[in-house]
Structure formats: C-alpha cells, structure tokens
Design goal:
The complex is a heterodimer of chains A (about 80) and B (about 500).
Chain A (H helix, E strand, L loop, with lengths): L12 H29 L9 H26 L3
Chain B lengths: L17 E2 L2 E2 L7 H9 L8 H12 L1 H4 L11 H28 L6 H8 L2 H34 L6 H21 L1 H27 L20 H10 L8 H4 L7 H29 L19 H8 L6 H35 L18 H17 L6 H30 L14 H20 L3 H18 L10 H8 L2
Antiparallel strand pairs in B: 1-2
Helix pairs in contact in B: 2-8, 2-11, 2-13, 4-9, 4-11, 4-15, 4-16, 5-6, 5-15, 5-18, 6-7, 6-13, 6-14, 6-15, 6-17, 7-13, 7-14, 8-11, 8-13, 9-16, 13-14, 15-16, 15-17
The chains are: A mainly alpha (about 80), B mainly alpha (about 500).
C-alpha cells in the first residue's frame, strides 16, 4: 500500500496478516512440488498416506494458496 | 522537438519516453535521438478494460484447445493438479511482471528489462524468447482456428486442407485489422473477448447435461503405472491454459497511466482466467466417457477441437444447430487469442527492430496510424509459412505449442533475475508500483517455472533440439551482426544508457 506520492504508508494489520499467510502457504506449495518429484521418481519414499488423502491434501493446499494470493493481489491493486 | 499532435506529450516534450516515473530530461537527449523517438512513437489509448480484454482475450484460446493433450495417459486428476500449479505460477507471475512493466513501460518489455538490468546480450535473449513464445503461440492458435472451422464443415472427418485454408484466411484478416489502428483493434478485442467467454458459458451449459462426478474423481485417481509422474507429465500442456498473458506487458507503452492500468487490468484478467480454467476442466472432463478421446484422434494426431467434441456428444446438443451454434461462437475464442498473439509478436519484433537487434525495417510505424506494419507483415508471413507446412507435418500444432511454453518459461526466470538486480541497484525505479509479497513472489515464479521447464526433459524431448536451434539462430545473428548496430535512440536503449 502506498500513498499518492509513492511513499510507503503503514499497512493495516489485517493486510499484513493476510500477506504473511499467503507467503507461508506459497512456500508450502514450493515444498510440495519437491515432494511431488520425489513421489514420482521414488514412489516408495516419503509417502504420506493413501493416494486419495495425498491428492486431497495437495489440491487443498494449492486452492488455499490461490485464494490467499488472489486476495492479496486484489487488495494491492484496489487503489 | 516533434510537434506532431498525434504523439502524446510527456512533460512538455512529445518525443521523450518514460523510465519508471522519471522522464528523460531534454538536455540529456540529442536532437536526432528525439527525432528518432518521435518517428517511432506509439499512441497511448489503452485503459483498464482494454488491458483486461487483451489479457483474457489473448489467453482464452488455452481454454478451447491445447490443454487437452495433457489428458493423454494422465487422466483428469493429474490435469487438475498440474493446472493448479500453472494457475499459481501465472498468478504470481502477473504480479511480479506488473512491477517490471510499470517501471519500464516500453513495447520491448523483456528487451527493456534485460537491457537495463544486465546488458544488451540479456536484453536480446529475453526479447528473442518472448518473440519465439508469441510467434509459436500464434502458429498454434491459427491452426486451432482452422481446426474448429474444419470441424464445423465436416464433424466426422475434419479435412487438413480446410484447416490450412481457414488458418490462412485468419492470418490475412487479422493482419489487416492490426494494421488499421491500435484503438480500433482494441475495441474489436473487447467484443471478441466477450464472445469467447459467452462461448465457454454455452459450453458449460451443454456439457453439464452429460456430466458425472465419477468421470472426474476417477478410481484410481492417478494412473497406476505412473502415479504422481502423471502430474509432472501433464504440466507442459497445462501451461497452455494461461501462457502468453505477458503480452499485456508489451501494451504498457500504449497504456494510459500504466502504473494503474497495468496491475489492475492484469490481476483482473488473471483471476477471470483462473475461473474459466476451473470450470472448463470440470465440464470437459465430466462430460465424456473416455477422457483419452479428448486428447488424441483415432489416427494418433492431436485433437485441436476438444470442446466441440464434448458438445457433439452431449444429450442437449442432439440437434446439429447446437453443435454448429457452439462451433461458430467458439471461433471467437480462437480469433480473440490470435488477435492478441499477433499483437504481442508484432510489438516484440517492432521493439527488437526499433532497437537494432533485428533488421531495422521492423521498427518502422505507419505515418498516420502509428501501427508497426512491417513487423506485422513479417510475423504474419512466418505464421502463414508454418501453417502451410502443416499439410506435410500434422503434429506442427503440438510442437508449436510446446516451443511457445518452453521459451516463455525461460524468460520468466530471466525476468525475475532482472527484478532482483534492479530492485537492489535502482530501487527508485519501482516507486510508482511495487508488487506484494516482495521476496516470496519472485522466488515462487522462479521455482514454479523451473519445475515446469524441467518436465520437458522427461516427456517432451522432441521440443528441446528445435528450441535450442532457434536460440542458436537468434543469438548467432546478434553476435555476428546486430550487436554492432544497436540503435542508441530507441527507448529501451535510451533509458538503460541514461539510467533514468
């Protein structure tokens, strides 16, 4: 969030919390990509649960990241 | 000093470009450089709606074809996970790209970023990458337009000759429209984008009459012989859902108040597209008995009209009118994207020509309309050449699609390098607009892009030598010829040289 003259002004706490949550979930997505590569090439390693649970967890994580980053993006371009 | 009223004035001097929010001072620009800029200036009529329409329109063809090749041997769940990875990549990418685009609002886009951050060689490499990305996307989309038209002519057995003829007509029509004028083509783009979205809404409605959940949430979820590998194999084709939205960054030089219009237009376009991706995947995969039939024809060639195929099998479209009606509207999706892609290809060729990295005749604009006619003509001719080659090489569409997405990923990574370099070295450049999630965002773009690019090595090796050959060709031209002939008065060069 910036003022008209381009100087950064303090952001509301809710926005900062949202950005922190989006960053954390994005990092978790990046870790999950690494896990996906391991599970692809070494299927016997690092399995978390049944395939159904793994797919549901990965899809849920990706959707959460999409929602959070979208919310941050919309707030950021609102002005 | 240029007194031409058609060229918008910037801070009193109509000829001078902007570098971030800072204008190049008249004192630091020679008279002949100012005259060169005036001679090669573009108009600035584009607003948020135009940017949104360009973003959605240029990408929407990805919903109509291309992604379906990801289904082959992988299945709908693998395509869903791969598509979510791609959606995240593009959402983070457009936010980071907005920052670069607002800081350097030039038609050269990646050329300007690389030139300013590192030097002419990286500028050329990035500009050439985007040129290849747009050019090959244009070829694939023209062929798919022909594919949908051929399907309408003969749904049972679409003819390759009709595909080629219809694609060539598309190339000619949109060459003429683009040469006509930027505002005129932008207005046409808004209407074509609405038509393309309407086509998808009709598709969802028709496909929903044949929808079953168990076709999506399959048992097993991933192919037993591939497991999670199926997701990785689906990624290169899933990229086609959203690739080429970065064309919008090239419109920054023609945008009114780019620091507002570019981020807002890009984010809204991306969110619209993510919604379209989700719904199209859902209804396409849920409405066919055998998802493999959406990817490959019985003769083994890739299917370029998957949505028409789904509609043809839905109970609500028993009457030929429904199939033909959808097919006609679906063509809006194709031509909207073709229109945006030829815009991107020509603007990149124009910028590379204006700066002397490619032959300088490509950098000329029409005296009255200020549109880059020679660049448009060359890009259209290259597209037409590849379309004709499709008569003897039916898999050209798949190859074009993969070259386009791979070259895109290469410059996404390089662009993030430029962003980090410029943020550290010239922080004032980004005072007008700064993307959120300052570090995590570009890091995510890099990791997601490398992840996607790595997938080509395993499953799509035929695209690697072709792409490498194109880079050798371009870089050979740069090293042997154009690096000695760079035009110092081009906006991308001027702002890099003056560091303003």
């Amino acid at each position: 969030m910036k003022s008209e003259d381009g100087i950064h002004s303090p952001r509301p706490i809710l926005v900062r919390l949202l950005e922190a949550a989006a960053s954390t979930v994005l990092l978790a997505v990046l870790v999950s990509l690494g896990w996906m590569i391991i599970a692809s090439y070494r299927p016997e390693w690092g399995r978390l649960a049944s395939l159904e649970t793994e797919v549901a967890a990965i899809v849920g994580l990706m959707l959460l990241a999409l929602v959070l980053v979208s919310a941050v993006a919309l707030l950021h371009t609102r002005k | 000093m240029n007194d031409d009223p058609r060229i918008p004035a910037i801070d009193g001097d109509p000829a001078l470009p902007r570098g971030g929010e800072t204008l190049i001072s008249g004192a630091s620009v020679a008279a002949e450089e100012r005259a060169y800029l005036a001679e090669h200036a573009l108009k600035k009529p584009l607003r948020v709606l135009d940017i949104w329409a360009l973003g959605v329109g240029v990408v929407i063809t990805g919903e109509y074809f291309g992604w379906n090749s990801a289904l082959k041997d992988n299945g709908p769940v693998a395509v869903l996970v791969a598509s979510l990875v791609v959606c995240l990549l593009y959402l983070t990418w457009v936010l980071a790209l907005s920052e670069l685009s607002v800081a350097m609002p030039f038609a050269g886009g990646p050329l300007a970023y690389g030139r300013r951050a590192v030097g002419p060689a990286l500028g050329f490499l990035m500009g050439w990458s985007m040129f290849l990305e747009c050019q090959f996307a244009t070829i694939a989309t023209a062929l798919a337009t022909g594919g949908y038209i051929a399907f309408l002519v003969n749904p049972e057995n679409p003819s390759n000759a009709v595909i080629v003829a219809a694609a060539l007509v598309t190339v000619l029509i949109f060459f003429l429209l683009q040469v006509w004028g930027v505002k005129e083509q932008s207005t046409a783009m808004v209407f074509m984008t609405y038509g393309a979205i309407l086509g998808l809404v009709i598709f969802w409605c028709l496909a929903s009459t044949n929808f079953r959940w168990d076709r999506i949430w399959t048992n097993p979820l991933l192919p037993p012989d591939k497991g999670w590998r199926a997701v990785l194999d689906a990624v290169p084709f899933a990229l086609w859902w959203l690739v080429i939205i970065e064309t919008v960054a090239l419109a920054a030089e023609e945008a009114h108040e780019p620091h507002r219009t570019i981020p807002r237009g890009l984010v809204w376009a991306q969110l619209t597209l993510i919604a379209l991706v989700g719904l199209t995947w859902l209804f396409a995969c849920g409405a066919v008995e055998d998802w493999q039939s959406l990817a490959v024809a019985p003769d083994g060639s890739p299917i370029s009209y998957p949505l028409a195929k789904v509609v043809a099998g839905a109970p609500a479209s028993r009457s030929p009118a429904a199939v033909y009606g959808f097919g006609v509207i679906a063509i809006f999706g194709m031509i909207a994207s073709y229109h945006g892609m030829i815009y991107g290809t020509s603007r990149q060729a124009f910028a590379l020509g204006r700066s002397g990295y490619l032959p300088t005749f490509l950098g000329s604009v029409h005296a009255e309309r200020r549109t880059p006619g020679p660049a448009l003509a060359l890009c259209s001719l290259i597209t037409a050449g590849f379309i004709i080659a499709n008569l003897w090489f039916p898999k050209a569409i798949e190859l074009a699609l993969l070259v386009s997405t791979l070259t895109a990923l290469i410059w996404y990574v390089l662009a993030m390098w430029c962003l980090f370099v410029l943020r550290r070295r010239e922080p004032e450049l980004f005072s007008k607009y700064r993307a959120p999630l300052v570090v995590v965002l570009p890091v995510s773009v890099v990791v997601l892009s490398v992840f996607a690019a790595w997938m080509y090595g395993g499953s799509n090796t035929q695209v690697l030598p072709v792409t490498a050959g194109l880079y050798v060709l371009g870089f050979g031209y740069y090293l042997c010829w154009s690096r000695f002939r760079i035009q110092t008065a081009a906006p991308e060069e001027l702002t890099a040289r003056l560091k303003l």
